[in-house]
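Consortium newsletter contribution from the modelling node. Members have asked for a concrete example of what our holo predictions look like. Here is one, prepared for the adenosine-5'-monophosphate-propyl ester complex that several groups have been discussing at recent meetings.
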Amino acid sequence: MREEVIENKKLKTEPNLRDYKKICETFSWKLAEKEVAWFPNKKINIAYNAVDKHVKTWRKNKVALRWIGKNWSPDNPKKETRDYTFLELSLLSNRFANILKKLKIKKGDKCFLFLPRVPELYTSFLGIVKAGAVAGTMFAAFGPCGLKDRLQNSGAKILITNGELKKRIYKIENDLPDLKYVIITDGKTESGHRFAEIDYRKEMNEASEKFNVKKMKPDDHAFMLYTSGSTGKPKGVIHSHKAILVEHMTSKWVLDIKDGDVYWCTADPGWVTGVAYTIFGPWSNGATEVVYEGRFDPEIWYSIIEKYKVSVWYTAPTAIRMLKKAGDVYKKYDLSSLRHLCSVGEPLNPEPIRWGLRAFGLPFHDNWWQTETGGILIANYPCLPIKLGSMGKPIPGVTVGIVDDNGNEMPTGKVGNLAIRPNWPSMMKEIWKRPKKYKSYFKKNWFITGDLAMKDKDDYIWFIGRADDLINTSGERVGPFEVESALIEHPAVIESGVIGKPDPLRGEIIKAFVILKENYKADKKLENDIKLFVKRRLAGHAYPREIEFVKALPKTKSGKIARRILKAKELGLKIGDVSTIENY
Ligand code: PRX
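And here is the predicted structure:
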């Protein structure tokens, strides 16, 4: 294979990590500790680092959040935009922390957010963490099934949502004994539910804007995100306050955030990127950020870049492919403010990078990490050549290995399990209530990521695929088991097997093989009905775009669905060892 390399000469400002090799040799996390804010006695608060520390500096009145509502249009840009300075974010989150104090929320209590990308999402998130509680987020596309799993397992005491989304909670309220309060951001509260509803606006008006931020130990829990595995229910990944060390440093090294930048991360805070690289790392570096509430739309996205002079842009391969598909639209806009582009979440093939060069005169810099890693661990840096198709190199302070199934390191150039030496500061602290699952990540002093990769002679890491059945559709992790569980709730379905099928736009789409009950007819109408059923119950992003009705499913002798066989058949690949498989 001929390697295609971009020298990264187009950078318009000095990169933060000038000499990668030298920094790697001299760096230790002790040095990073000097870059973030501490309280006496080695106490810290990640939310204080994101906003409050700036209030004591010239950044006090700097715009931190430039919010753009979903009805925004370039013809009427003043409508539906709101700016928040670091001071305003600090005071609003203080008010919210005082609401939690009034509700007697204690250190470690779980408070969940179920909101679209509205300003209240960001201010409440910060308020929860400042109060010493644990903030959790759920993507607004989740339906009752997806919500129940998350709220039940976390034992969340508080949920912050809006008048529209709360209706999905009503459907599952009897299954949520721990949920005491539901705070409604935008309207009337109702009584007669198992929890008390609280009027956000009224309470915010009455709350004091003074709050003594809780001083936490570095390992105390700060936030959690549910993420899918290849088996079982979603996992509650817990992160601590010291995750800020990785998120702060990588926002400098990888995203290259500078004070003059306008930064836009297109990820939703329902996923880890929208938390670590909207709320924590870039704000900790004092960035002005754009947040757009609306959905993907090439014209609107380009208008936002043009109008608000976005300079650093962090997005995902599916979005880049969709922009590419939209063709020459970009030519109508002045996008010259852009100076640094990054991408995460799925493999970034060479073609979208080449397209980025043609459209913006800049390459997208791929980087790799996971919900469990709490921050970027492998990246293409502004200061290093990009080998197209590679995820780049480890961040300083982190050791990456390629290991076999027993945890032994493999030679250069060989494909194996992508593994990280444990205990980087943003490594997950727990899988909530599942200690065995947590332990299962570690082997011979390596953290096993579940990805397969290869390291080349220059220490660039190349993504090969997943070692398990996990699906990555449009950069979002979906567990086949969750989709199968939702499918069998449908009255026509006896059993199903779910796989990720390669797709040119979305990376993968979810495909379900379904066995129907006897009296049901396998036709288009039923197919659409099943799709809609899963979409409504589980989540808008996690339904099967393709359904194939089958008479039998391949199974292991212990009765598990052999997804590997389904996938091999779908792709027309060799089926491999079938000594333990039935019905294939
Ligand atoms: O399989 C890898 C893929 O996404 C997984 C992590 O998903 P999640 O926890 O949702 O976090 C996504 C955003 C940080 C990984 O195990 N993945 C992530 N980045 C890349 C990637 N696959 C290929 N290339 C990447 N750059």
